[in-house]
Amino acid sequence: MTNCDTCVFYVYDEEDDCYICECDLDQDEMYKFLTGTNYDCAFYRLDDEYAVVRHQK
After folding, report:
1. Which domain holds residue 38?
2. Do 42 and 28 contact (CB within 8 A), yes or no?
3. Per-residue pLDDT of the chain (57 residues; tens, 9 = 90+)
4. Which of 7, 33, 34, 51 has a 20 to 30 Å separation from 18 between CA atoms?
């Protein structure tokens, strides 16, 4: 199970006042995500803001 809180695609939407996933999930993936049945997202990427800085060193 991935942790959406640390994913780069999980962003805060000020208009709706909530967090949303910006990935294009298909119907099966969305069902698994919403029901919480051991969903392992294929689009998950760690939101590591310092990765570029470490790479430049």
Report:
1. 4-56
2. no
3. 457 888 888 899 999 999 888 888 889 888 887 887 666 788 888 877 776 666 666
4. 51
Q: Which residue type, as a one-letter code, is found at position 5?
A: D
Residue 13's DSSP bridge partners are 18
Tokens 């780069």: give the residue. Answer: 8
Quote the pTM value.
0.63
Residues forming a β-bridge with 28: none
Tally the domains of the chain: 1
Decide: 1 and 38 in contact? Cβ < 8 Å: yes
Q: In this structure, what token pair is assigned to residue 46?
A: 């760690």
Contact 13, 20 (CB under 8 A): yes
